[in-house]
Structures are given as structure tokens and as C-alpha cells.
Amino acid sequence: MQCPVDGTTLVMADRQGVEIDYCPQCRGVWLDRGELDKIIERSAPAPQPARAAPRPERGYDDDRGHQKKKRRGSFLDDIFDF
């Protein structure tokens, strides 16, 4: 095939299973049918697994899910669950 811009013979390269035609003179790149779809498919990031919402510390939420303010206490509050 000839480059549509300058008439130079196109060079075919295989990049990760996708055949790409490019012009060594003007550096233009031409793709055949379906090759752009393959490139887009391979460049999309893999979906991340859903993370569970962090659980609030015990005793800081009321029954309706509202956060309560932590009252200031003694060092025993840190050791025992009141």
C-alpha cells in the first residue's frame, strides 16, 4: 500500500497482536477495520473489585446510623467496652 499523504510504501508492524500500517517518511499511522477497537479494548484498565465500605468503630453510631460524638473519658474507656 502507498501512503495517502506522500506516496511512500507503508510498512506493516505487529504491536501486541494488532497490525499497524505506518509511513516511515511522514510517520502517519493507518489502521484496518477492527484494529482501533482492539487497541481501545487492550488499553482500558481492568475493573477494580468493589471495596466494602469501612465499618465505623463500635459504639460511635446510633441506631439510625448517625455518628455520635465521642465523649472524653479515662484511660479505662480505651481498655473496656462501656
What does this entry look like structurally?
This protein has about 80 residues and is an alpha+beta fold. Helix content is about 15%, strand content about 15%. It has two helices and three strands; from the N terminus they run E-E-E-H-H. It has helices at about 35-45, 75-80; strands at about 10-15, 20, 30. It has a three-stranded antiparallel β-sheet. Strand 1 and strand 2 form a beta hairpin. The N and C termini lie far apart (about 80 Å). The mean pLDDT is about 75.
Q: For this entry, what is the oligomeric state of its chains?
A: single chain
Rg result: 31 Å
Number of strands: 3
What's the helix count?
2
Structural class: alpha+beta
What profile does the largest beta sheet have? 3 strands, antiparallel
The SSE order reads: EEEHH
- The best one-word shape is rod-shaped
**Order of adjacent strands in the largest pleated sheet:** 1-2-3
Helix content: 10-25%
Distance between the termini: 80 Å
Uncertain segments: none
* Residue fraction in strands: 5-15%
Q: Average pLDDT, to the nearest integer?
A: 76
